Amino acid sequence: MFFKHSYILFLLLFACSGRKHLALTEEADTNSYLVVLGITQDGGYPHAGCRRQCCQMVYDGDRSPKMPVCLGLVDPANKKLYMLEATPAFPEQWRRLQDISGFHDNRVPEGIFLTHAHIGHYAGLMHLGREVMGAKNAAVYAMPRMGDFLRTNGPWSQLVDLQNIEIQPLRVDSAISLPGGLRITPFAVPHRDEFSETVGYRIEGPKKKVLFIPDIDKWSKWSRDIVAEVGRVDYALLDATFYRDGELQGRAMKEVPHPFVEETMRLFQQQAPEERAKVTFIHFNHTNPLLWDKEAQKAVRERGFSIASEGMQLAL
């Protein structure tokens, strides 16, 4: 009962916290910026079925719950809002984005960009249907297989048939130009593509570039060099699902491959401090100590890397 009430209080505080409560740079006040609206793996934190201490800390009130990975994109000049991912926490995340931006008249996002068909990345589309928001032609940007998945599988197909959403096609390495000098480019990454392909995004503003890769199997499986790719941007939000091998109890981690945080740090360890500083870890599984262990967090920061937090903002 305590957790139930504390969780509801958390969501209310999350939803009602306005932009005035956040430390924004002057640049972010006048130019487009990204907002981190969620930082965890698909299942959130705490995780369904978890009775380990990592999740028990939330039920005991010692840690705050965290939502699945989602980014908000704010274009103040044109009063437009976009989201990258539609998570099961869509109601809270959309409300937070409206409150941070101050654009409360935007009934739905100007566009929603999906990475792939794993539940934490698209299931929030359900809130656009007639059972909830009854949206009209909300733009959902999706790769070919992702778009076909939505068109041909219920309940998502109903969103298309009733014109709650309008699927906007994406092509690998082909940029989508948005108002305000913004560009979003999808690129293919290797992942468990049961129902759709998987992409990351390069997000470009007038002054800054951001790399967003919430899910990838291993850096070594990618046709590109992650160190070189980070060298071409100003910020990189990278898959940090697991901290190290052996983190899952009673489950083979090769079934759910991801780059371990320890592996990623080793890849960048010989890079200059300014390159390591670009890397911000995101998409944490509930077992990842970066969610709850202050010593692990300190060790990562001492090596020159950053850890994503809900409400974090990046000026573009």
Write down the secondary-structure element order. HHEHEEHEHEHHEEEEEHEHHEHEE
Describe the strand arrangement of the main beta sheet, using strand numbers.
6-5-4-3-2-1-14
Identify the overall geometry: globular
Strand content: 15-25%
The number of helices is 11
Uncertain spans, ≥5 residues at pLDDT below 50?
1-28
Question: How many extended strands?
Answer: 14
Describe this structure as you would to a colleague:
It is a single chain. This protein is an alpha/beta fold and 316 residues long. 27% of the residues lie in helices and 21% in strands. It is built from eleven helices and 14 strands. The strands form two sheets. The protein has a seven-stranded mixed β-sheet. Strands 7-8-9-10-11-12-13 form a seven-stranded mixed β-sheet, covered by helices on one side. Residues 1-28 have low confidence and may be disordered.
